[in-house]
Amino acid sequence: SQPFASHPLLYSQAQAMAPSPSSAQPDLHTVISALQAQPLTPEVQSWGCAAIRNITEDGGPAQRCCALELGALELILSALKQHAQSAQVQECGCAALGGLAKDAGARQRVVSLGGLDLTLNALKSFPAEEEVQRWGLSVLSEVLRHGEDVGAHAARGGCLELVFVAMQLHPGAAQVQACGCAVLGRLALLNASATGISVADIDAGGRMLVFSALEDHLDAVEVQACGCAVLGAMAFRGSSALQRSLVTDSGALEAVCTALESHPASAVVQERGTSALRCLISGPSATVLAEFACRADELGAARLLSEALRHHPEAVTVQSSALTALLCLASQDAGDEEAAVSVFSLRPPCTPAVCDEAVLLRALHEHAAVATIQDCALGLLWGRLASVEVHQCTYCEASLLASQALRLHSASPKVQGLACGVLLSCLPQAWPEMAATAESPAKAVLDAVQKHAQNCAIQELGWSVLLRMLQAGGLLAFAEVDISAALRLLVEVMRRHQLSGPLQRAGCDCMVLCCADDAHAAGELDGAAAYADTDARRQVLLAAGAPGVVAEALQLLSADVALQESGCAALQALAGSDCRVLLAEDTDVEKLQQLRSATRVEAALLESIRSQPASVAVQVRGLDLITALAPGGPRKGPGALLPGVDLALLALREHQLTSEVLVIATETLARLLACDPARGDRPEPMQDVAAALAAMQGQAPDLPTKTILRHVARSCPDVATRIVALGGVDVLLQVMFVQPELAELQEVIVGLLEVLSARCAPARGRLHRQHLAIEPVLHVMRIHHQSGSVQARCCALLAHLAADGEQAASHLIAAGCLELAIMALQTHADDVEVGGWGCLAVQNLCCGGSQEAEACRGQAIKLGVPQILTSWMSRSRTATSSRPKSAASHAPAAEDQAPLRHSPQMFQAICAVALHCLSIGDGCSDLVSERLIQLLSPLLDASTSALEVRERACHLICQMANSSEKVRTDFVAAGPQLWVALLEVVREHLAASRAEEAMDDGSEAPHEIMLALQAPCAAPSATSLIHAAANLSSDEDEGCRLRAKHVSSPLLVLAAMKSLPAEPRTQATCCAALRRLSLMAACNQGPERAVMVHELPAAVELTVAAMQDHSRSAEVQLKSVTAIQALLRLSTSSAGEGEEAALDRLVQLGAVSSLVHALRSHPDVTELQEHGLDTLRMLATASRRPDVVAQLPELGVVPVVIEAMNLNISKPKIQEYGCALLAEMAWQGGEKQQQVGDALGVEAVLRALKAFPELPEVQLTGISAVQALTSGHEAHRVKFFAQADILDIVTKALANFGKVEGVQAFGCAALASLVHTKQERLEALASLNGVSLAESAKVGHLKSPVVQDVADRLIALMKTDRK
């Protein structure tokens, strides 16, 4: 401010002209007047300019404005121009000009009036004058603020070189060095394309000058400030290579840090130094940034920046520059502070330890309105709070300042994001203080996320903060906001930013808390109940499409474990509860309909469970939702949730020690199984696959086999078969073994095994295959013997397994199943479910004729089973009789025919069958009871009991009557009603036994079938999820099976045919059944294969008889013909009696004439014609039976065959079989050959050949017929040549089917027969390359003697003719 202190005389004269620099206008007027009065006096001009400098410098902007208005600028420029050779005038003029140029409006006037050019001239004219250089450079530094145009003007005047010269000539002049650095800094910041001066140009000549100035003038504040500024400008505007060179080669960081440390009290040095430091360490790449930051850290840059913040709290520029530099030091990523802030909005920076929270809090407090300070300080504060534990009051103060920043800088995304980050670090510690503030912090955060909906970082941090608030204060945190609008906003931003994992996680967790239990969500304060309407909030989310948004997030971010857990929890919350509560409340449809209808929810859940197999939370929540979303009743099927079977089994395999996962996974399987329609044991393709996979247990199938079977298994729509095919039985047994103490889990698993064994035979096979397979079930029965539900499910499983026959029952008896079933009946004498299934298990275990079964019955009698069964029958009858009549009278009519599962008759039926089983041998005496006859009598009623039950009840009554006089007396005393019932049962038994008597093969052990009944018990306990789920909307009950005597299917069919020979419908149906059974037996399939082979002669006889007795019935004729075909196939198989024996039998039975009659009687039945001709062909051609062939013409076969061929010209099989038959008869020669020709056989054969030239089968039989008809018969040859170009037809067949041996053989033979010795025919054949075709036939079939022979004959015939 006192530029002329080094010139005392000049300074005193200038002061004399302006004795009071701080006074008002008259002094400035005096100076202006003196300058105007003496323009040619250099002393006056220099003193006047000096005076203007002093007045304007001390007076500030007001005096500069006044001087400009009085024309001071023009006078100064005039003085510089007039006295260009006066160093004193140039010095003072430049000083005054630089002072006026500080005014922004004056800079352009200075340039436009030539001030810049005059300054450059002064610098050029007086390079050795220190003060001229100082003030000239000062003018340049001021006017260069105006922009690129001034910079370009200065560059054209040689500005850069003048600066270099001045700094070189005056190294000891601190002011010259300072002003020179200032000019270089201004030039570096200007656009090089406009000025023509690049940073590289400045660096080339000025780098060493700058570093020398900083080193030589360490105590000079101006030099240090301007030197730091030029280094920062060069780093900011220069290339990355130049920046690296400044830092690594020249020690720019060291120079700046030295300046900062040397002048801690100088605000301008601290401002320029911190700004330069920030520019120097802001590398263009992550590697460079880390390197520079590490170098700056070694120099103590963070400490120096923190000191600058402490010493200059009021200086906005110092605070802004220092905070920005600290933020760059803390960055771990590339880019300048702009990029750093955008990165920090995702995660907190690594704030240096020396930058404590007190400095940052003060900066936030003192400069609340400065956005730059706010965003940098908030970012650093976030990093500080995230890395160290601070005092409670610090969290509170930081949260309040962050909330204030949210409100004051709502338009700044950086401030909003970083403020949310600070709030996130302060919660939940600062929540009490935040809740006590007048303005809701939640509202400020919601305003931020709403205003910056496109900014993903703000959404992530904002909703994370809101989540923390909900976790800390419940819904009370949202007391001052519209929570419904907030939830709708949440769904919208989640939909907009689908790939943001943090946002999706926070959003899902917010949904969980907002849909949580009211007491938990609302908190404990009064008045919060208004915000605790859980259903209303859930409805808002559902209406906004929250399930679909969550599902989309789960699918897009399947690798994010935390998101998968939160997403599944959110869907649970949207569902309203877990599946067990929903099923218990029976509100499945109401609570889950909206969730089920959401797009891709089911697919998302399946993908979530599949992608996170190791996450317990995902498995539990996801499977729980699968369980809840499964349809609520049978016949609907699991639909899209079918892959849940695979995932539940995988969860059971992977989490066998986590009881929570095991329980929910088994419940999921149970639910899916319950909603799938029961398919029983019907033969389906997947049953074979399941059986194959079950059979592989303990083996090592090759990889292709395993891959194919698993692929097929995964495409199975049947849940039960799918579980078995994927190894589910073994998994369930392993879980039972690992977790035997969990009664609820064991009950569900046994229930699963029960249903699987009922629906899928391979499941039972797996349990039977190994001795230890059933052991986990028995172990559960032992340790949970007091649990009625567990015992009921185990008994049901044993009943299903024991129903598989004596071998299965023997296996179970050896394992100790009988004792456990009896113990269950004794322990739970009042449990209907245990009683029903226990009695059924005992019956199926004791049934059979083996020694093991006999021993089992004896053991059961010793253990008191008869008394237990009698007791159950008595209780069931008592319960029935005690029902009020009024209730029965008002019941609907359909109740009389209710399923037996809901009536006591089922218990009585099972008990009766079991008692009858125990009575075999010497056990009847142990069953004699006074009341047993009364208990068995109701079972004779045909309206309530099956025939098998009535048979056994009748037999048991008769046995007891024959063994006990008292029972006989009671029987007689019972009256005619019981006699009539017994007589009716006997009559029905005799009617059903007629077929059985005819089919008795003499074997000792009778065959067995399963008598399918309704389940024997009432509704199962509510703890069994599988049945509870099934009962939601089911009108079909699980079935059970009683072992009963079996009549094999072939014997039954044959008996029916014998019993009803005059019934055409029966005969047709039986023939169809015989065809199916024969084909299965021929393929080594079917359980009755041996019986079918054994009864083959009878089957043939009955089939031919049916065809003969019902010649007018087209259906019987067709079914019988197809049955004969199948029986012939069975006869010729490895197990059959052989072709010759079968044909002999058919011929002896008159099958040939019957076939001909059938073909003649039903010419319009195409299928009959096809199968009939085929069968005739087989009879005629097989073994070349002369008796059959001789019989055919006599039966009129020729016209029948030709008529069939004419009526079915489009059926290739009929043409093939017809030509074969015509050929067979024509080969007989003589009259038979002539008969075929006379019946238009030639024409029929030609039509067949022309109709199907592409079928080798038709061509073969047709050409064979040509050969048969023309062999030794010239008239037929003439007819063939007259009807068509027969040679062309045959030769084309030879050419087209060169690999078909029959075509080649018959073709050559037919050509030889056709041409015979006629010259013109031989020539025609020669023109068609007959010799070549014959030679080709020989070459193609070298191993065929027939082809070789006939081809040689044809060639010889052709060559003989040529000779």
Order of strands across the main sheet: 1-2
Largest sheet: 2 strands, antiparallel
Annotation, overall tally of beta strands: 2
Q: Which structural class should the secondary elements be placed in?
A: mainly alpha
Poorly predicted regions are 1-11, 18-26, 332-345, 518-532, 579-590, 680-684, 879-902, 993-1007, 1018-1037
Number of H/I helices: 81
> Can you tell me the overall shape?
elongated
Radius of gyration: 54 Å
User: What is the beta-strand fraction?
Assistant: under 5%
Report the mean per-residue pLDDT as an integer: 80
End-to-end C-alpha gap: 141 Å
Task: Give helix % range.
Answer: over 70%
Give a quick summary of the entry.
By secondary structure, the protein is mainly alpha-helical. 72% of the residues lie in helices and 1% in strands.
Structure keywords:
disordered N terminus, 72% helix, 1% strand, 1363 residues, elongated, mainly alpha
Present the secondary structure layout.
Elements: H1 8-17, H2 25-37, H3 42-59, H4 61-69, H5 72-82, H6 87-100, H7 104-112, H8 115-125, H9 130-143, H10 148-156, H11 159-169, H12 174-189, H13 192-195, H14 199-216, H15 221-237, H16 240-249, H17 252-262, H18 267-281, H19 286-298, H20 301-311, H21 316-330, H22 337-344, H23 357-366, H24 371-387, H25 392-408, H26 413-426, H27 431-435, H28 441-451, H29 456-473, H30 483-496, H31 501-514, H32 518-522, H33 534-543, H34 546-556, H35 561-575, H36 579-585, H37 588-597, H38 601-611, H39 616-629, H40 644-654, H41 659-675, H42 685-695, H43 703-714, H44 719-725, H45 728-738, H46 743-759, H47 761-769, H48 775-783, H49 788-802, H50 806-814, H51 817-827, H52 832-846, H53 851-862, H54 865-881, H55 885-890, H56 905-918, H57 932-936, H58 947-963, H59 965-973, H60 976-998, E1 1007-1014, H61 1025-1030, E2 1039-1046, H62 1049-1059, H63 1064-1082, H64 1089-1094, H65 1096-1109, H66 1114-1131, H67 1139-1148, H68 1151-1161, H69 1166-1181, H70 1186-1194, H71 1197-1207, H72 1212-1226, H73 1230-1238, H74 1241-1251, H75 1256-1270, H76 1274-1283, H77 1286-1296, H78 1301-1315, ...
Antiparallel strand pairs: 1-2
Helix pairs in contact: 1-3, 2-3, 3-4, 3-6, 5-6, 6-9, 8-9, 9-12, 11-12, 11-14, 12-14, 12-15, 14-15, 15-16, 15-17, 15-18, 17-18, 18-21, 20-21, 21-24, 23-24, 23-25, 24-25, 24-26, 25-26, 26-29, 28-29, 29-31, 30-31, 31-35, 34-35, 34-38, 35-39, 36-39, 38-39, 39-41, 40-41, 41-46, 42-43, 42-44, ...
